[in-house]
Amino acid sequence: xxxxxxxxxxxxxxxxxxxxxxxxVVGIKDGMMSTVPFTIFGSVFIILTQFPxxxxxxxxxPYSAMLNVPYNMTMGIIxxxxxxxxxxxxxxxxxxxxxxxxxxxxxxxMILQVDESYQLSTAYFGSKxxxxxxxxxxxxxxxxxxxxxxxxxxxxxxxVPEIVSNSFSALIPGSVALTILFVLRCVLGLEIPxxxxxxxxxxxxxxxxxxxxxxxxxxxxxxWSVGIHGQSVLNAVGTPIFTSFITANTxxxxxGEPIPYxxxxxxxxxxxxxxxxxxxxxLVLLMIRSKEKTLSTLGKLCLPAGCFGVNEPVTFGLPIxxxxxxxxxxxxxxxxxxxxxxxxxxLNIIGRPVVQVPWIMPPVIGAYLTTNGNIPxxxxxxxxIILTGIMYYPFFKTLEKELMTKETAKPLPAENAE
Length: 418
Known about the structure:
The chain has 21 helices and no strands. By secondary structure, the protein is mainly α.
């Protein structure tokens, strides 16, 4: 076990830390995260118009068109925001002008949205266009970087205001990027969004499958167990996909169609990471009742944060990180919760995520809201807290016994000599 821990620490951790710091990973992750406030804002109005109560629906029915405006202008055109936000964040990560990176990416994405009659089509403004927006941003920002690196830009004297200088320095690379996209779509007639959708379809299928989401959760937990923020590494891939899932689920829900995706945003957040990564809320409750004073005190300190999904005080304070006793349940319990939740959603016993809620939403409440008031989903989340407590218990008692043994083994302070 000691050798395995050393291997994780010396070989695996540095590699993933380097990956997490990669500018493309950082740019995509930060760009996707910047869209979250807008998707949550739009989701609030979905709850208002679609709350599962006939009396309430009758009240809001006359105002449904008006109340759908926030959704239509946020989640309904989310790909346009993604194009700008990833272009902005990626340019910043690559030390380019962020504003021009975002603007060129946005315009490039819009060029790709014209139809055969050269009119703007909104077909890929929603969840279907997220991957096109992502690749467009990478392409445009990379060209900006290449041109600047080779000094193929318009330069101005130092006295010229920075905003003017940056605007003109992006003129040549931005024009080249937009011209290439124009030729691909309008001259050659390539349906880039459709091609991108087909390109990403295997990955989309994988992350909506049970093996795919299980592998995702496992590696996220493994990274956390060695002190690496798992989401920082994996969300560059996962967040665009899970966001497209929740947007598509919301669209289907509003249209009264079957909900297509199980692992949409809210699946891991509300049904796996209960109390934070590793489902540690139940562990915190066990700590509070511990006979060992340090554990009890730490548990009381961690409970308020744990109720809102913040568990770094537990993972680093207990600690769980690099702790052979606690690493095993920390990795396996979320995988077990993933399995149970996936089966229940696949069998339509509990509802699937259709509304994006803030990640700090307390357990049970978050499960209830993300499934738009599905009571079986909320009850399952409550049952998960009990199950995780049962699964953590033997490992926690082992740790508690070790700490109490060390405490009793400490030599008593010597009496002062008179």
